[in-house]
Design goal:
There is one protein chain. The protein has 157 residues and is mainly alpha-helical. It is 73% helix and 3% strand. The model has no long low-confidence stretch (mean pLDDT 84). The relative contact order is 0.15. A two-stranded parallel sheet has the order 1-2. The chain has one domain. Helix 1 packs antiparallel against helix 4, helix 3 crosses helix 6 and helix 4 packs across helix 6.
């Protein structure tokens, strides 16, 4: 008889525990996300700007930072990698929360809608720029989170 038996009731308890932990982590993630996006940086007055041109901001950051060194490195990191990291937990945790298996495309669609909603709320609140590049980077982050979910899921099976 093997040392560790896989009993069906243990497997069900494990799934429930993972689901509850994922829900708690997702709620904490949303709270931290709201704080970072709307309260971390206090501005005087409101700031409203819109960019609908894909890769305009990314190209501008690349040009000024790598060619002219006019931005400090933290600005490049915060803008590019920060936007990628913002929605990585979304792509990782959302499939764990949903009982049915979520497809790659449904995660990307939900991430895009969520990111557009964030940009719209930031614009209305006057706390950030509504930028299509942020949406692109956010969706890429959710994609990376989903890839991590799939890798971790395969390793636990």
């Amino acid at each position: 008889m093997p040392l560790f038996q896989h009993k069906p009731e243990l497997k069900l308890k494990h799934k429930k525990l993972v689901h509850v932990a994922a829900v708690i982590l997702f709620l904490l993630y949303l709270a931290v996300l709201a704080y970072v996006l709307f309260f971390l940086e206090i501005r005087d007055g409101t700031y409203r700007n819109v960019n609908f041109v894909p890769f305009k901001t990314i190209r501008m950051l690349y040009t000024y930072y790598f060619k002219y060194h006019e931005f400090t490195s933290w600005y490049w990191i915060a803008n590019i990698y920060g936007n990628i990291a913002l929605l990585a937990p979304f792509g990782l945790l959302l499939p764990l929360i949903c009982h049915r298996r979520m497809s790659f495309w449904s995660i990307l669609l939900l991430a895009a809608l969520f990111s557009v909603a964030i940009e719209f709320c930031q614009f209305l609140a006057g706390v950030g720029e509504a930028d299509i590049d942020d949406v692109i980077l956010n969706v890429f982050g959710a994609f990376l989170g989903y890839v991590l979910y799939r890798i971790l899921g395969a390793s636990f099976k």
